[in-house]
Design a protein that fits this description.
Helices cover 0% and strands 54% of the residues. The chain is an all-beta fold and 115 residues long. The strands form two sheets. Strands 2, 4, 5, 6, 9, 10 and 11 form a seven-stranded mixed beta sheet that branches. Strands 1-3-8-7 form a four-stranded antiparallel beta sheet, with no helix packed on it. The chain is globular. The termini are far apart. 30% of the residues are buried.
């Protein structure tokens, strides 16, 4: 199983980025797919989830209305569309696939929000 994140980078406050998480070795339609982020010295925090059943989504309060998680089952890829970015969104973003006892992580992609 492999999860590969991409799309990170440096963006100014107010800008947008779309992160991608391409999965291989599993079908994302069978997994709850989550995005987490982490900055050095702090614990990894959950950001968003798109559930395997029904495609329901949930978000961390601080990103509600600015972030949108989606998936393309045909491409086996999950996306995190981030808009109106603020410096506090800076961190390394990780993709996670979870189902019962299965739990997989990607290597992360860095997002830096700065002037």
């Amino acid at each position: 199983v492999q999860l590969v994140e991409s799309g990170g980078g440096l963006v100014q406050p107010g800008g947008s980025l779309t992160l991608s998480c391409e999965a291989s070795g599993l079908s994302i339609s069978n997994y709850d797919m989550r995005w987490f982020r982490q900055i050095p010295g702090k614990e990894r925090e959950w950001v968003a989830i798109i559930m395997s059943i029904g495609g329901n989504t949930l978000y961390k309060d601080s990103v509600k209305g600015r972030f949108t998680v989606s998936r393309d089952n045909a491409k086996n890829t999950v996306y995190l569309r981030m808009s109106n970015l603020i410096p506090e969104d800076t961190g390394k973003y990780y993709c996670n696939a979870g189902r019962r006892l299965d739990n997989y992580w990607g290597q992360g992609t860095q997002v830096t929000v700065s002037l």
